[in-house]
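Hi Prof. W.,

I finally got the Spermidine/putrescine ABC transporter ATP-binding protein prediction working! I wasn't sure whether to trim anything, so I left the full sequence exactly as given:
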Amino acid sequence: MTPPLIKLNQVSKKYLNQTALTNITFQLTKSGIYGVIGPNGSGKTTLLKIMAGLLRSSKGTVEIMEKPVTRLSSQHIAFLSEADSLYSFQTVNQMVDFCHNVMPDFSKDKALNMIQSLNIEKDKKIKHLSKGNRARVKIVLTLSRQVPVLLMDEPLSGLDPLVREDILRMIVMNVDVEEQILVLSTHEVSEVEPFLDHVIFMKNGTCLLEKSVEQLREEKGQSVVEAMREVLS
Ligand SMILES: Nc1ncnc2c1ncn2[C@@H]1O[C@H](COP(=O)(O)OP(=O)(O)OP(=O)(O)O)[C@@H](O)[C@H]1O
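And this is what came out:
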């Protein structure tokens, strides 16, 4: 049997007296693209941060590539936060150089090629880019890491629909689906559906379903949107 790339066992998380996750158990064994889908407050960000080793669970265990996740796991994991996390005073080029200098797995060539193909001006300061291009640069920097696990929290947040579709295509084209696992969270399921291989449905801090899109179609004759309506209603 293939060992799981990501394994969660009975994971719960409480922030003071607010329960964010309850007994989450699943194993992500296959590479490909996973969508963590659920309404606002269902625990998507908390789940991704725990998988990235950025937050500690209150209970349960998390393993990435058969090793317990810790802050040091960032050498196997690229995490894209929903927050605006770029240094706005730097130019795009300087930001690429910075990533190259601090992350041994960062491919400068891949980053520069993507930036060129997106027609983003490398000498512009991040703060002078459009919102869409800032989001693209953030995603380029994540996709340029040659790591087995990519985690993206709401990568399309705050962008208009045309830009969103364009960015989704760019993400999918640049993930090595044979070698990498991409887990992205969203509450806008219909636009990501065509790109997903697997879904994880979240509601009120619990995982209601973890299945491949193919299984959903074969076993229940359902699209992701139909399954989501049934499971999350
Ligand atoms: N730092 C925090 N302190 C207290 N409660 C928190 C904190 N972060 C999240 N929560 C609570 O935990 C629950 C899950 O939040 P989380 O952000 O993980 O959900 P989400 O599905 O990502 O939401 P959204 O789609 O709105 O980003 C919510 O009830 C939220 O209010």
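The chain has one domain: 6-232. Does that look reasonable to you?

Thanks,
D.
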